[in-house]
Amino acid sequence: MKNICATVVILIGFLSFTIDTAHGQSWLKKRRYRKIGTDIRVSDAYGKPWQKSSRYGIIGLNLNAMNYLGETAPDANVTSLRLLSTRLNIGATYTYKFTPRISARGSLSWGRIYGDDKKSASENEEDNIPRFERNLNFRNNILELNGVAIFELFQNSFPYRRRPNFMPYGFIGIGVFKHNPKAYFDGEGMKAGFYELQPLGTEGQYAEDRDSKGYPKPYKLIQLAIPVGFGVKYKIDANVDIGFEICWRKTFTDYIDDISTNYADKGDLTAAKGQTAALLSDRSADSGFTPVLTDNYGYKHISGFGLKGDQRGDVTDKDWYITTGIALYYIIPHPIKCPKPR
Q1: Which pairs count as long-range contacts for 126-133, CB under 8 Å and 24+ apart, including other chains?
Q2: Which residues, other chains included, contact 171 with Cβ-Cβ below 8 Å and sequence gap of 6+?
């Protein structure tokens, strides 16, 4: 995953360099043409030089598949994506083209990510048996607002109606998202249904004397992300493009799935937030693996899971989420200016 994002960043850096080089060459050409008095013929042949009046806006709608990389994915890389965990993402964008290669885009999107230890891998994959034993699940609705800089591979100094038919691009930016992980419970001890996880502190976030017991702090439901990716656009009309895009979001939290560190003591969880927190923190007893044991508080678990200090997640890796999909773009036409009466 890190190698993929590093490659995208290097590509964008290369595009930035070529932009500066292209602008420098363009300026030298125009200067040379002016010296020999052929500037008008060059403009007629190759289109007007890029000016502020050449800038334009684009509105877009996108439809995406949404996935995440975290504790309930088999591995923290792109090959771990499973169709059973794919969910819908929709969004709207506004893009403003500043130069022949550089645009700025704002996006608002909503989507859902999902993970389930039972569905994260095949039961025949021996390395993933601990995931089936852990037996955790979550879903998370994500509302995101972001802004990115877009770097197009080919320079286009023409008016938008004469833009290239095919345009690859890369982008990077910053975003903010609101999330709220929930888990589905269908075991013994309470009513079946979805329960919000952050208010329960399933890893001891709200336990008394949290710091002295080594429990993490409560995580925030509003977080920052770095969107980075690439895409292509294809011209289908003077004002309409269709596009395909992949975007990775690097987040700064390991709690998109509410799983990060170790199991907390169920007595501490019960004292802080009641039985609901204790039951949702550990689902290993419902995994189908045996033997099923009972701890000092009467809660069931299997060996290696559910007791304070047992590994629950991987605190060394932050979570990512990804969208892959298509978009429809409409270029807002320039208003027609009528000549002033003389």
Answers
A1: 128/74, 130/304, 131/72, 131/74, 132/287, 132/288, 132/289, 133/284, 133/287, 133/289, 133/302, 133/304, 133/305
A2: 12, 105, 148, 149, 150, 151, 227, 228, 229, 230, 231, 247
Between the alpha carbon of residue 140 and those of residues 53, 75, 116, 256, 303, the distances in Å are 43, 19, 12, 7, 29
**CA-closest candidate to residue 301, choices 316, 311, 291:** 291
Max intra-chain CA distance, the chain: 95
* 283, part of any domain: no
Q: What is the CATH number for 38?
A: 2.40.160.20
Residues 292-333 pLDDT 10s: 999 999 999 999 999 999 999 999 989 999 999 999 999 998
Handedness of CA 259, 264, 270, 273 (dihedral sign): negative
Q: Please indicate, yes or no, if residue 268 is contained in any of the structural domains.
A: no
Q: What is the pTM of this model?
A: 0.82
Q: Are the C-beta atoms of 283 and 136 separated by less than 8 Å?
A: yes
- Residue 233 backbone dihedrals phi, psi, to 5 degrees: -125, 145
